[in-house]
Amino acid sequence: MSLEQIFYLSQSIAAFAVLASLLYLAQQVRQAERVQRATMQQGRADRTSQTSLAAANPELACVLQKGMAGDTTLTREEFTQWMWICRALFLSGEDWHRHRFHKARTRTLWRRLVSSKVP
């Protein structure tokens, strides 16, 4: 085997190694994207379940209903609870908007959030 043939063989092996590493990198990127989306979905589900559980609390459910109805007889404590509930809902919506703006959420999910009613 001549020196030139050894050179071409080594270049072919190097090209194959680069191609294999690019394919491996593409696979890793796809997997990382799936994991990131799953993590975002899990966070959303966790936040939604926590909000639902909080709204199911009889005391907070009463405050939520009064606030949604625009009842002016809210006590200071109820008003503070209402403000914290509204803050939690606002932050959740802001997070969704941020994800939608960066195209991390689909248009269908965004429409579902915007059209949903507060529990």
Give an overview of the whole structure.
The model has no long low-confidence stretch (mean pLDDT 82). The chain has one domain (3-115). It contains 4 helices and no strands. It has helices at 3-56, 58-69, 76-101, 107-115. With 119 residues, the chain is mainly alpha-helical. Helix content is 85%, strand content 0%. Helix 2 crosses helix 3 and helix 3 runs antiparallel to helix 4.
Could you name the key traits of this structure?
mainly alpha, 0% strand, 119 residues
Kindly summarize this structure in a few lines.
The protein has 119 residues and is mainly α. 85% of the residues lie in helices and 0% in strands.
List the helices and strands and how they pair.
Blueprint: H1 3-56, H2 58-69, H3 76-101, H4 107-115
